[in-house]
Amino acid sequence: MEQLPCQDCKGLCCGPVAISEVELKKIKKKIKTMPRKTRYKLENQLRFHGTCIFYDTEKDRCGIYSARPKACSMFGYYKGMTCFRKPALATKNHDFIEEPVGILSIDFTWKDFK
Ligand code: SF4
Ligand code: SF4
Q1: Looking at the 3D structure of the chain, how many domains does it have?
Q2: Is the CB of 72 under 6 A from ligand 2?
Q3: Does a structural domain hold residue 8?
Q4: What's a Pfam family in this record (predicted)?
């Protein structure tokens, strides 16, 4: 499958995202099992206002990749979730997305994952 050109985007599309209860629990587990040093470094990076709290600015990638919300993994490949850098890839029809409990980076911040 053709991939999006995400490298060097520096988290351009990583902003606040709606998450479900299940996703919230998954992220909490991921953060809790992270080595303390990794977690501390991720938490204390400087980010632009509005950038996702889990975007890893040093490594230019998602800091919780294996636990990222479904909306993040769908972005760019599903209709209505188009990436302007390669709009032609947004062709899939929507899967079911669970009811959100809040917005990551706004309703849930680092203090909720300790
Ligand atoms: S989905 Fe698009 S905007 Fe987001 S990082 Fe990838 S190429 Fe960049
Ligand atoms: S959870 Fe990961 S992929 Fe989703 S917006 Fe945050 S940094 Fe980006």
Answers
A1: 1
A2: yes
A3: no
A4: CxxCxxCC
Helix (H) or strand (E) holding 19: strand 17-20
**Ligand lying nearest the CA atom of residue 42:** 2
Q: For the chain, how many helices (H) and strands (E)?
A: 3, 4
In a domain, 73, yes or no: yes
Domain annotation covers residue 4: no
Q: Which residue matches tokens 């890893």?
A: 56
DSSP character string of 28-69:
HHHHHHS-HHHHHHHHT----TTS-TTEETTTTEETTGGG--
pTM of the complete model:
0.94
pLDDT in tens, 38-90: 999 999 999 999 999 999 999 999 999 999 999 999 999 999 999 999 999 99
Residue nearest to atom 6 of ligand 1 (CA): 6
Domain hosting residue 48, numbered range: 17-109
Kindly state whether residue 49 falls inside one of the protein's structural domains: yes
Can you read off the two tokens belonging to residue 3? Answer: 């991939």
